[in-house]
Write a structure and sequence with these properties.
- The complex is a heterodimer of chains A (346) and B (274).
- Chain A has helices at residues 12-22, 35-45, 65-74, 82-93, 99-104, 119-122, 139-152, 170-173, 189-194, 220-231, 254-263, 267-277, 287-295; strands spanning 5-9, 52-56, 61-64, 110-116, 175-178, 200-206, 210-213, 248-252, 279-281, 299-300, 304-306, 314-318, 326-331, 339-342.
- By secondary structure, chain A is α+β, with helices and mostly antiparallel strands.
- The model of chain A has no long low-confidence stretch (mean pLDDT 95).
- Chain A is globular, with a radius of gyration of 21 Å.
- Chain A has a domain at 208-337.
- Chain B is α/β, with parallel strands linked by helices and 274 residues long.
- Chain B has two domains: 5-102, GMP Synthetase, Chain A, domain 3 (2-Layer Sandwich); 119-273, Rossmann fold.
- In chain B, the strands form three sheets. In chain B, strands 7-6-8-9-10 form a five-stranded parallel beta sheet, sandwiched between helices. A three-stranded mixed beta sheet of chain B has the order 1-2-3, with helices on one face.
- In chain B, helix 2 (53-66) links the parallel strand 2 and strand 3.
- In chain B, helix 6 packs across helix 7 (223-232).
- Chain B is elongated.
- Classes of the chains: A alpha+beta (346), B alpha/beta (274).
- At the A-B interface, strand 1, helix 1, strand 3, helix 3 and helix 5 of A face helix 2, strand 4, helix 6 and helix 7 of B.
């Protein structure tokens, strides 16, 4: 392997401190990435160690197979997760994802990964209860590996390249969750978004997770309207007036999904209903905001100002536990678009 | 050693020595184009406030390039990186292992040349790249446009909408390329947040790449980011003009006053004569 090396104290505590001082890590424990530990990660990709998977900004660093492997080894991500991590890097490097903007912004955004296909079970990536945080499994180690790639390869460093004012907890171990496809009345997200009908990962720039609870609605329409209204809070990124595009992801629990699917077998109708409700009346905004909305053509029929400009920008997935009652909203950042890539199993 | 190179390195080291931080010059090897530096933090009041060594090193590389000393390699010894705590009282002799470096290889230093100066402005076409985010940039641009027009320059402007992709995005980029082809000078702004600084620098670098006089305008808070992005984009010497921060929360007349007062300094950064 052609790569810089360092002779360090192999004690886990000493190495963890060393990694922090070097700027390699976030402060949580890390595993010393010795060649013996890293080699299986490289092998799992089945490509030469020096092969560039993508160039990542702002550093414009080359994410080679080897660099990806070193960072994955540091977080003890499963060796078998390497194809997933590779696909995630490729998805983030898609220009539509705007990784440079995500890594530089003042916002707290984190690339969340939505996983489809049998790989969810093989890698123990949760799609049920606690899938966005707290469930047992490998999501955190995989997510953290990606965070280290963004730190060490892309060069995203708080206060330097990243201007994130507050950050968010998801910036430590990432956000990695699956879709509960077997409980969804609709096609898997990756199939709907990108025509991928096998193992796939979707990268989505998430500002964080926001809970939506409902214990009153007695019809699918009423429930979707409630979800939509909840999304459209004034400080949501979609209301930055100059944005031509913005996406919001909604994770609907399987209990609600079953109910909704009976009346709305076509997911497009679900998106349309949520989108229509995710709006505010222009008169509820102060005059200065009203002028900005008018300048940017955001005021629609009936004086409605929609959170996002088209129903297709409401991204719906089915995830979460069987307790029902809650949806999770992940508001998007700026004009960044969700990007999906299939996993390469060679 | 070349006295000139030693002097330049010494000057830059002094520029980065402040608030109890001292950048010491240990060696300058002109033949090998290498400089060895070390940080002395013994007088620093707030260690947590000192920029990480690797980023400080990158900024020093950029600054050296800006002052005419593009170097192949700069090392910076950071005492914080040496201070690895012991594993605990039960720790035995050091168990040394060899680990692989997780950091991506640094990008090439890039072109330190700021590009052509604007020169005499009379009858030149000055292009303003404005945005959809910052009203303060509209006000600043408006003031500068009037003053430039008074100097005999012709003014054009083009508004960037961030994040337009696909066919529409390609059309927008073609539109911007045509805009660049129609002007002698481009002034791109405003870098006043993370993502908009990235777009501002990107559009300024596009101008620089075409060979016209090009300058990015950023606010103080985002100048460091602008510098890093310009370096990573291959143009560490890109002209950057810095406006005060915060700017967008100020009343319109105050912003316009800032624009008028900063006009001479802006011309100087642009290398312009009126």
């Amino acid at each position: 392997m052609t790569i810089a090396t360092h002779d360090v104290d192999g004690d886990p505590l000493a190495f963890t401190h060393f990694a922090v001082e070097q700027g390699w890590s976030d402060g949580l424990p890390v595993i010393p990435p010795t060649e013996e530990r890293v080699q299986p990660y490289v092998d799992a990709l089945g490509i030469p160690p020096g092969q560039v998977i993508a160039r990542l900004g702002p550093l414009q660093g080359d994410c080679t197979a080897l660099k990806l492997a070193v960072n994955a080894a540091m977080t003890a991500a499963p060796v078998d997760s390497m194809p997933l991590l590779r696909a995630a890097v490729e998805a983030m490097a898609d220009p539509a994802f705007e990784l440079l903007q995500l890594n530089a912004t003042t916002a707290p955004v984190v690339p969340a990964l939505l996983v489809n296909g049998p790989v969810r079970n093989r890698l123990k990536i949760s799609f049920g209860a606690g899938c966005l945080g707290g469930a047992d499994g490998n999501g955190p180690s995989i997510g953290r590996a990606l965070r280290l790639v963004l730190r060490n390869v892309a060069g995203a460093r708080i206060g330097l390249t990243s201007q994130s004012v507050h950050g968010q907890p998801g910036r430590i171990a990432g956000v990695v969750f699956g879709e509960w496809e077997e409980r969804s009345p609709w096609a898997p997200f990756a199939a709907r978004a990108a025509g991928v009908h096998r193992d796939a990962v979707t990268a989505f720039g998430s500002m964080g997770s926001m809970n939506i609870i409902d214990a009153v609605a007695d019809s699918p329409a009423m429930l979707l309207d409630h979800v939509g209204r909840s999304l459209a809070y004034p400080g949501a990124n979609g209301y930055v007036t100059g944005l031509p595009v913005n996406e919001t992801m909604v994770a609907i629990n399987p209990i609600w999904a079953a109910m909704l699917g009976k009346e709305y077998p076509d997911i497009v109708d679900v998106q349309e209903r949520i989108w229509h409700a995710a709006a505010t009346r222009v008169g509820d905004w102060p005059e200065k905001y009203q002028r900005r909305f008018e300048e940017h053509g955001r005021i629609m029929e009936g004086g409605r100002v929609y959170l996002v400009s088209h129903p297709s920008q409401i991204l719906v997935t089915v995830s979460g536990g069987l307790g029902g009652l809650h949806a999770a909203a992940l508001h998007g950042i700026g004009t960044s678009r969700a990007t999906t890539r299939p996993l390469a199993w060679d | 050693m070349s006295n000139t190179l030693v002097d330049l390195v010494g000057d830059v080291a002094r520029q980065f020595s402040r608030d109890g931080i001292e950048v010491q010059v240990r060696d300058v090897d002109e033949a090998a184009r290498r400089v060895d530096l070390a940080l002395d933090l013994s007088e620093a009041e707030c260690l947590d406030c000192v920029m990480p060594g690797d980023y400080l090193r990158r900024l020093i590389v950029v600054r050296l390039a800006e002052v005419g000393a593009p170097l192949v390699g700069v090392t910076l010894v950071d005492p914080r990186a040496q201070a690895v705590p012991a594993a605990g009282p039960e720790a035995k002799a050091t168990n040394t292992v060899t680990v692989l470096d997780p950091i991506a290889a640094p990008t090439a230093p890039g072109d330190p040349d700021p590009g052509p100066a604007a020169g005499r402005l009379a009858e030149k076409v000055i292009g303003f790249r404005v945005d959809t985010l910052w009203r303060s940039w509209d006000w600043v641009s408006d003031e500068w446009m009037k003053l430039l027009a008074d100097s005999g320059a012709q003014i054009r402007s083009w508004r960037r909408v961030q994040g337009v992709h696909g066919t529409e995005g390609e059309a927008k980029d073609a539109e911007y390329a045509a805009f660049l082809g129609s002007v002698d000078v481009v002034i791109s702004g405003l870098g006043n947040c993370g993502s908009c600084t990235a777009w501002t620098i990107k559009d300024a670098m596009s101008g620089r790449a075409t060979g016209i006089s090009s300058m990015a305008v950023v606010t103080q808070q985002f100048d460091g980011l602008g510098l890093i992005l310009a370096q990573d984009g291959g143009f560490p010497g890109l002209r950057r003009f810095v406006l005060p921060y915060p700017l967008d929360t100020l009343p319109e007349e105050e912003v316009r006053q800032i624009a008028r007062e900063s006009f001479p300094a802006m011309l100087e950064t642009l290398g312009a004569e009126v």
